[in-house]
Write a structure and sequence with these properties.
By secondary structure, this protein is mostly helical. It has 28 helices and 5 strands. The strands form 2 sheets. It has a 3-stranded antiparallel beta sheet with strand order 4-3-5, with helices on one face. A two-stranded antiparallel ribbon has the order 1-2. The longest helix is centred in the middle third of the chain and has 70 residues. The relative contact order is 0.07.
Length: 668
């Protein structure tokens, strides 16, 4: 490429018009404000009047003056400006016949709008690009576009395209080198040596250790889960997670880790030493997190697709197997109940004895058959009717050996924490792991602290196993009950894994405290936000006041209150003035005949007097502070905002803690 990393499209649009500006761009950049119109009126020739106005909009949109080719402006922009200054667009062809006129106009506009040379804004741009490189994963093309937008917004004239591409490349390389150096310096020598050893292919293996460790499981079973838990322990043993990297943005570590996870071992071996160490450190730290997630994914799949699914199928199969016996037993009981229900009622003249009823029943169903039928029904029908899962839970208990091999290792390898609702579950799982490990028997009193979680059909399985002595707890049933509660709590995130990603607490990775204070300056610089939020809050309030009435179903007027701690907004009643009147006031960034709020350069006296516009009076608002006026004007699309004047006192205000403001504009 002729300009290093830039695309042909970026080269084509740099400092020039690649196509006709949109309507929004014409309104934003080529709508003349009152000051610009006054300057235009000072020109005598139609061509110079139109040329000056077009240059005024061109530098605001492109960030450069088209000195060499002043007429290289799309016809749509020329026509838009010509309509405002009352000149035939054809006159623009005459502009620039005298080169000195173009230079003079450029200097006048530059002084009027406060544009600076690139040399004056280069240091500021370097800080901005460096902050973006440090805080994001944007590539050089995106950084170049960010730099152009930053220069245009800060009113710094664009340099030559090679100068800007070189600056972006230099800053990006320097920041990346700083990142590699910082991570390499914080990695202990022994840890770095271990990490480099992961790139070695052992004699009895076909792949490197790194390739082996970054291979995720493809199926779920008890043995696979044990192997994954061993993988978690092995990766944690490298010590990468103990390296202090809080000052490095997580997005940069993630970017390095993606490269390390996707690259082959020979490619990583060829990297420069500091970059290699940084990449391996980020990759292994990522593997620490990914291995925990993989292990819990295996646990989730093992429970849902293996244990539960098989238990449910077995439970249904058992139900089908016992259905003929149950049907025969039910038929015998039904026949006996039919005789009992049809027995005559006792009266004063005749008594009905129990012996007579039994004789009638035994004539249809022998007593021994009826007794056996009752036993069959009692065996196959759950004692409780509040749980439809009794059958598959009973089958699930039979798979205790699968759970026994990993439940203790699970708690030893992965650190679990819980919110208040999940703490009883963690305590129960810990008790179950201890029971699974021990060989002694447990009584009901030993698990009394967890009895509230043994509900439904789990209770007879845990506390009333007929094969165990009375009062003894079934360890298998208790362990499976605890595991099911853990699984449900993990899915709800009542219980979460420390160091995981998908199975972690949603807010656990938020930056706070000293870590946030250290990262705050560069983050704010990258996002172009101020240390104090008052200006940004004012901008949000202004946006609400301007855009609220335009939203579907929105109010016809709105209010907002800005203070040191936040923004308050509400809907107001009553409307004054008209959008047409505001449009005629002629402020910058304003759509004539029904557009946006004008900026401070507009006719403040007309606003205060109510002459064709909304009545903004001191009795309603009082004077607005400058920063609030700027925010309101910017929200309206203005670019030359000084203040939003309210009457004659708009520019005079003292320090205030909070300022309320209201807009009453009909038809916006």
């Amino acid at each position: 490429m002729p300009f290093e990393f830039l695309s042909d499209e970026q080269v084509a649009r740099y400092g020039r018009f690649p196509q006709e500006p949109s309507v929004a761009e014409l309104e934003q950049f080529f709508r003349l404000d009152r000051v610009a119109l006054e300057q235009v009126d000072k020109r005598r020739r139609p061509s110079t009047r139109l040329g000056w106005a077009v240059q005024w909009g061109t530098v605001r949109m492109l960030g450069v003056f088209l000195i060499e080719k002043p007429t290289a402006v799309p016809a749509g922009a020329v026509g838009f400006v010509a309509e405002q200054v009352g000149v035939d667009p054809a006159e623009f062809a005459e502009y620039g016949r005298r080169a000195q006129t173009v230079y003079e106009h450029a200097w006048e506009i530059r002084e009027l709008l406060g544009y600076r040379d690139f040399a004056d804004g280069e240091a500021e741009l370097r800080r901005f690009v460096a902050a973006r490189v440090w805080s994001t994963t944007e590539g050089p093309r995106a950084l170049f576009d960010r730099a152009v937008v930053h220069l245009v917004r800060e009113r710094v004239l664009l340099p030559g395209i090679t100068v800007l591409t070189r600056l972006v490349g230099e800053v990006r390389r320097a920041e990346n080198a700083r990142l590699y150096g910082l991570l390499a310096e914080r990695t202990p020598a022994e840890t770095a040596a271990v990490l480099r050893g992961l790139l070695v292919v052992q004699e009895d293996r076909r792949v490197s250790e790194l390739e082996r460790l970054r291979t995720s499981p493809v199926k779920a079973s008890g043995r696979v889960l044990v192997r994954e838990l061993d993988r978690v322990s092995e990766i944690a043993g490298f010590g990468a997670g103990r390296v202090q990297v809080e000052s490095v943005p997580a997005v940069k570590l993630a970017s390095l880790a993606r490269y390390g996870m996707a690259s082959k071992a020979p490619t990583l071996r060829d990297l420069e030493e500091r970059r290699q160490t940084a990449t391996l450190l980020a990759t292994v730290r990522h593997l620490e997190t990914a291995s925990i997630d993989d292990a819990l994914d295996v646990l989730d799949l093992l429970i849902t697709s293996n244990l539960l699914a098989k238990a449910e199928r077995a439970g249904k199969a058992e139900q089908l197997r016992t259905l003929p016996k149950l049907r025969s037993a039910a038929r015998h009981v039904a026949s006996a109940m039919e005789i009992l229900m049809s027995a005559p009622q006792a009266t004063e003249d005749r008594l009905v004895s129990l012996a007579e009823v039994w004789n009638e029943i035994e004539r249809v169903v022998p007593r021994e058959k009826l007794s056996a039928a009752v036993e069959v029904i009692a065996a196959f029908v759950p004692a409780t009717d509040d749980d439809a899962a009794a059958a598959w839970r009973a089958e699930l208990v039979k798979r205790y050996r699968t759970v026994q091999q990993f439940i203790e290792l699970l708690l030893e390898t992965i650190e679990f924490r819980a919110v208040e609702a999940g703490q009883p579950v963690l305590a129960m799982v810990a008790a179950a792991a201890a029971m699974a490990k021990a060989r002694r028997r447990y009584d009901r009193a030993d698990v009394a602290a967890h009895e509230d979680l043994v509900t439904g059909s789990w209770r007879p399985l845990v506390f009333a196993n007929p094969e165990l002595p009375a009062g003894q707890v079934d360890k298998a049933a208790f362990t499976l009950c605890a595991l099911m509660h853990l699984h449900a709590a993990l899915r709800r995130r009542d219980v979460f894994a420390v160091g995981a990603d998908r199975w972690s607490a949603p807010r656990a990775r938020l930056l706070e405290g000293a870590g946030w204070e250290a990262a705050r300056p560069r983050v704010l610089a990258a996002l172009e936000l101020e240390d104090e939020p008052a200006g940004h809050l004012a901008e949000l309030a202004g946006s609400f006041a301007i855009m609220g009435p335009r939203m579907p179903g929105g109010a016809s007027s709105g209010s907002a209150r800005v203070g040191a701690t936040g923004v308050w907004a509400s809907v107001l009643e009553g409307v004054e003035g008209s959008a047409q009147g505001v449009g005629e006031a002629g402020g910058e960034g304003f759509h004539r005949g029904g557009g946006d709020l004008v900026d401070g350069a507009g006719d403040a006296d007309r606003f205060a007097s109510g002459d064709g516009g909304p009545a903004f009076g001191d009795d309603v608002l009082g004077p607005l502070p400058k920063d609030l006026g700027e925010a309101v004007g910017l929200a309206a699309g203005a670019h030359d905002v000084v203040e939003l004047a309210v009457g004659e006192a708009g520019a005079q205000c003292g320090d205030v803690d909070a300022v309320g403001f209201e807009f009453h504009v009909e038809g916006l």
